[in-house]
Automatic annotation (TrEMBL):
It is a single-pass type II membrane protein. It is found in: Cell membrane; Membrane. GO terms for cellular component: plasma membrane. Belongs to the peptidase S26 family. The active site is at S32, K100. NCBIfam families: sigpep_I_bact. Its EC number is 3.4.21.89. Residues 7-186 form the Peptidase S26 domain. It is an enzyme of class 3 (hydrolase). This is Signal peptidase I. It comes from Enteractinococcus helveticum. Gene3D superfamilies: Umud Fragment, subunit A (2.10.109.10).
Length: 190
């Protein structure tokens, strides 16, 4: 009995240390945010950043893509049980976490593209020095959207290799993500 108690006393702080180090850390799985974020980069987000401030255009954020970017992903009973147990400890993995750049916030009108191939936000051409291919238009296909209340329009920096709001323009929600699905802005890369 004493051994179990000592083991429990040793494990609990370890769980909290592991949680504090990893709960807001994500690994980049794809090339959609290159060149700024490379496959395998570990990023950290600030989960409290939008408690008092609104998301801004240009913010690189991690958000919950379930129901939009991952609409058909199913889970086994065992996976739900395991994730539920980790959730009780505050360590549930974010399987549907996606990282993209906010291009439009509520009320913005976004159009592709001006005569130089740049996106236009509210009629103004957008300078995007972070794009993977600066010599190509900001999007391979034209679009015109208005961002509704409580949503944001997100694009990858590697526009020719990114599934983002453009891919969902005809879907419910029009490719816009609800602001409450944003985990937080990226604050560091390792």
């Amino acid at each position: 009995m004493l051994v179990c108690l000592l083991l429990l006393i040793a494990v609990i702080p370890g769980v909290f240390v592991f949680r504090a180090y990893n709960v807001n850390t994500y690994t980049i799985p794809s090339a959609s945010m290159e060149p700024g974020l490379q496959i395998g980069d570990r990023i950290e987000v600030d989960p409290g950043a939008y408690e008092t401030n609104e998301p801004q255009s240009g913010d690189v954020v991690v958000f919950d893509g379930s129901g939009s970017f991952y609409p058909y992903e199913s889970e086994t009973t065992m996976k739900r049980f395991f994730d539920g147990a980790l959730n009780l400890l505050g360590m549930a993995p974010q399987h549907n976490a996606v990282v993209k750049r906010i291009i439009g916030v509520p009320g913005d009108t976004i159009e592709c593209c001006d005569s130089n191939g740049r996106l236009m936000v509210n009629g103004e051409s957008l300078e995007e020095p972070y794009l993977a291919e600066l010599d190509r238009p900001a999007s391979p296909s034209p679009f015109l959207v208005e961002v509704p209340d409580n949503r944001v329009f997100l694009l990858g920096d590697n526009r020719y290799n990114s599934i983002d709001s453009r891919a969902l323009l005809g879907a419910p929600g029009g490719g816009m993500i609800q602001k409450n699905k944003i985990y937080g802005p990226v604050i560091s890369t390792r």
